[in-house]
Amino acid sequence: MALKTFPLGFPWDTSDPFLFCVHHLDHYPRGNADLGPDASLEGRPLGNDFTLKEGWRMYHGHTVPGFPSHPHRGFETITIVTRGYCDHSDSLGAAARFGQGDVQWMTAGRGVQHSEMFPLLDSHGPNTLELFQIWLNLPRANKLVEPHFKMLWEESIPRVAGPGWELRLVAGTVQGVTAPAPPPDSWAAIPENDVVVALVSLEPGAVFDIPEGALGSHRRIFLFEGGGISVEGHPVQPGQGAELPEKKVRVTCGPQACRFLWLQGKPIGEPVAKYGPFVMNEPEELNRAVEEYRLTQFGGWPWPYPDHVHPGEKGRFAQYPDGSLTEK
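The structure assignment produced for this chain is given below.
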């Protein structure tokens, strides 16, 4: 087996049915009264601060780090927050505060606006944030479905463990264990599409076997933390990804513990036309998406500010478009 490896850039290079993945790791200082960093923002290009300075970034935020209101159409976002918190607000009236292992799965479908802000809730100590956002494409038939917003709470996400390794299963089935159901119109909602999203942790010297995938599935791992690994004897260095064959693959951790993300799925196999936050099949569909957003704002913005954050004392919760509320 000739193993194809590649560097992890920003964003990470994924394969169909995935569009890309970003990994945010920010070591924020203590929070201030506005839930932003209790530190000077002087010298940062606020509104477009993607340079790691003093261990953290403001992204598009001016007071609180994060991504104020912006639109999406034609795909899904899977947001895994392993450390810290994310405040979600959207044009459907849905809202959430999630983190510490929670996952939000949003089907943008025909169009939605949302904001993703990172409130710094600890006013006494550091506020580390680790977040993965995966863009999963939608097939042509589902590009314009009704938007859907779902929470996979940390308590509901299964863990599969073996000697020296643990896997957190966000999507798919591994070793007879199945993750919570994805949104109904997702490519991942069809078991035959063989979609797997999982975070794998290995102790030094541990061995983990990635089981055989379905015929035609695209499979990649992304080694984002710790030391190197070998995949069927081929070295993969920290900060690299590897494209895997369909057969069972043995991963062996080196002398330092490590973590990697595993993405798998059968390709949709349709043309992809992308323009910023819109992903369709044909260029003319992108033009229509931009025009419809200009005219409708995908339902408008019902929140006081584009960078809306929830009160600091609020715990983990989700408020759904139908008015139902879940508090954790």
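Interim note for the steering committee: Residues 157 and 180 are 7 Å apart (CA to CA). The mean pLDDT is 97.
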